[in-house]
Amino acid sequence: MATQKSIVRRRSEMKRWTRILPVIVIIYVICYIDRSNISFALPHLQKDMHLSGAQAGFATGMFFWGYLLLQVPGGYMAERWSAKRWVAILIVLWSAAAVASGFTHNLTELVLARFLLGVAEGGVQPALMSTIRSWFPFAERSRAYSIFKLYTPIAAIIAAPSAGLILTYADWRWMFIIMGGGPLIFGLAAWLYIIRDTPAKAEWLSDNERNHIEKSRTEEGEPLKNRGGFKAAFTSPIVWLFALIYTLTQLGLLGLSMWLPSVLKTAFHTDMKVGLVAMLPQIAAGLAIILVGRSADRHGKHITHMCAVLGVGAVVLAGAGLISAQQKWLVLGAMIVGTAASIAWYGPFWATVTKLTPVAAAGAGIGIINGVGNLGGFFGPYIGGWLSDISGGGYALTQVFFGLVFAVAALLVLTLRKRLREATSAPPAGPGTAGTEGAPAVRSA
Fold first, then answer.
1. Whole-structure pTM value
2. Which of 168, 184, 271, 437 has the smallest count of CB within 10 Å of its CB?
3. Which among 293, 277, 254 has a CA at the least distance from the CA of 387?
């Protein structure tokens, strides 16, 4: 009997890891590329549309204001209606907005296209994260969210050469059209063919495999279907605490991206060398995400893992101003460690979010946390630029500030230790779930 249970578990895990997660990652890799590819087109856009630097920055940043609009509705629709249908609609809308960027002729049209792209993409991530929550029990969720976060290094590795290739043989208009058309052709087909809202709707799972997934979640005290609302999410203190932590981590990430790339260019001189060397931090980040997520699930120490990673990030950022461009291998080492630390906390963080956020606030709560957190990415450059100006154009004060931001985030994470320990040690809620033989032992601290 024990052997049979083990086989069922391995089969159900294999299908979730090899079907659900790869499609989710692919969808958001395409999202992230469509969001960031404007950086490669900006020099051409400025020349063709006669845009100033401020106008180009305004058009780029308009994405984030649109991105905020569907964050909360995106999570709500995924929980209350259907993540599969909701994301399918958004894929079509964001693809249309991305392609439309290739047909713009002035600043107004470009700003509108970027805003609509942000609106469409804004509802995608909360829905994808709700889907992961439905398919993975808490004991596996840190690994699942860590794999999802691989979209960052994957998109960074793919975007630059792809955009460069298109811009070499065509122009910026074709870059937007080709990269924007990808999700409609490939992503939508994969999403509709494979993804199901819950294991209960997956015809490619056997009954035993389906029952194992659902039983694992109920044994951890989680309902199989959430019926959350907007009010519960907006009035939940824990949701706003998570939003604050996420905002701080995004600010810290901006500190890393402001300093290290410029020093890297000075240290390694040529664009070719910089391009090759810049891939190493992304590869390291991908490995760190997986290792930290796996370790957090295996040892059940989600808070410890988050604090350790954020602490390393704080030290690297705060000490970055002491490194000169002449110390090129030290610069590279700092960039590798800093990049890995800046995002490796992601899996344990979102696993903790889905465990501690009240059921009534689940879907909309994810949207609030992600939406508010991304404001850190919007205001970070302004804060960093202001600190650089008052320090005479250097980055030392800027880096110390962003390092302290990471440290504060780590301290706030520590306040969650007791809550998470109580949540993971409490008996399952609901009839028929307490005392189930073979229930997984979930520990966290």
1. 0.81
2. 437
3. 254
